[in-house]
Design a protein that fits this description.
2 copies of one chain form a homodimer. Chain A is built from 7 helices and 5 strands, in the order H-H-H-H-E-E-H-H-E-E-H-E. The first copy, chain A, is globular, with a radius of gyration of 17 Å. Chain A has one domain: Winged helix-like DNA-binding domain superfamily/Winged helix DNA-binding domain (Arc Repressor Mutant, subunit A, Orthogonal Bundle), CATH 1.10.10. Chain A is an alpha+beta fold and 172 residues long. Chain A binds a DNA duplex (30 and 30 nucleotides) through helix 3 and helix 4. Chains A, B: It comes from Glycomyces lechevalierae. Chains A, B: InterPro entries: HTH_HxlR, WH-like_DNA-bd_sf, WH_DNA-bd_sf. Chains A, B: Keywords: DNA-binding, Transcription, Transcription regulation.
DNA sequence: TCCCTAGGTTCATTGAACGAACCTAGGAGT
DNA sequence: ACTCCTAGGTTCGTTCAATGAACCTAGGGA
């Protein structure tokens, strides 16, 4: 975002959220973290995002308390980025915006979401019509009618799976 | 957003929403439209946004079906921008993100929101804990503890008022 | 005649996004 | 012993959106 990613003169909570989440690519990174993507190269392959931008976004999300960087292997040192509790709480926002997009912009959704316990499709709020509020970890993602990207990470997401369950792409 | 405001290679609904709503300032324009701001100069005064950017965002939101441009006076010709039904349906997204920001980033909210009928504070989803789903027009906005901007448009928003009710700033 | 208002447009400057190239350290293959 | 591969980045020149000050236009009011 050119010349100032901040909104200094604003008085609302939304502007503070947008300083952290409103930059290009940022919310897509969070969405894919909810889908189970954890590693730098997996984000990069799935999003086709310039590495320098991805690096910046991961740092900012980590500093902002949305992600946590963890070493998952000592030698050679390798890292993954996990959503914090605050990050997981962005699920309703991401889902509501996706539903809005499908309703008002159009396009077939490549992935659908239901309550894992009762298999009921979620309301736009992310709640289950039968059971009420649903934790993000109890949401099951399964393939929808829309076209899907063809890369190893996206392919690994085609099996029905819960949110936050780590994506393990097959090696090429 | 530099070099491409689009996300062409993406397969998700969210990326299509972000092509329309994800640029700098855009969601703040929608938020203020929900708060009752309708006129070019009122958006400009309240947001301190460069006029060229505001002009671009209003055109894009209008083309995208979020706003509708209407002439409210013939001579001299004057215009206002009203939210469409699709635009009003962004209220839960805007509200959920504001609540997230207050919970996880902090800061006092300058405005609070309750169900106008029963005066109960809304859930983060925008629903009323007592009555269930609430239409945006039945949400009442009232001043909260946080600091407020001091401009004629922001001052006009300090009286308790329903969402979408037109803001009428006092002339300076 | 002059100024004011609403609703913009024009333009030079700045700095974020892009993407290709490069880097580093540890295994793995031959 | 040497080379390749992988994960996880960094560097850097190019492109283009954001900024803000100046300007524009048409009608009304003093």
């Amino acid at each position: 975002m050119a010349l100032g990613k901040d909104y200094l003169g604003q008085d609302c909570s939304l502007s503070r959220a947008l300083e952290l989440l409103g930059e290009r690519w940022t919310l897509l990174v969070v969405q894919n973290a909810l889908y189970g993507v954890r590693r730098f190269n997996d984000f990069q392959v799935r999003l086709d995002i310039p590495k320098a931008v991805l690096s910046d976004r991961l740092v900012r999300l980590t500093e902002g308390g949305v992600l946590e960087k963890r070493q998952y292997q000592a030698s050679p040192p390798r890292f993954e980025y996990l959503l914090t509790d605050a990050g997981v709480e962005l699920w309703p926002v991401v889902y509501a915006l996706s539903v809005w997009s499908h309703r008002h912009i159009g396009g077939e959704p490549p992935r659908l979401f239901r309550h894992a316990d009762c298999r009921t499709k979620l309301l736009p709020t992310g709640d289950c019509p039968e059971c009420g509020p649903v934790a993000a970890g109890d949401v099951e993602m399964y393939p929808g009618p829309g076209p899907k990207r063809d890369d190893p990470v996206s392919r690994a997401m085609n099996r029905p799976r819960r949110l936050l369950e780590p994506v393990v792409p097959e090696p090429a």
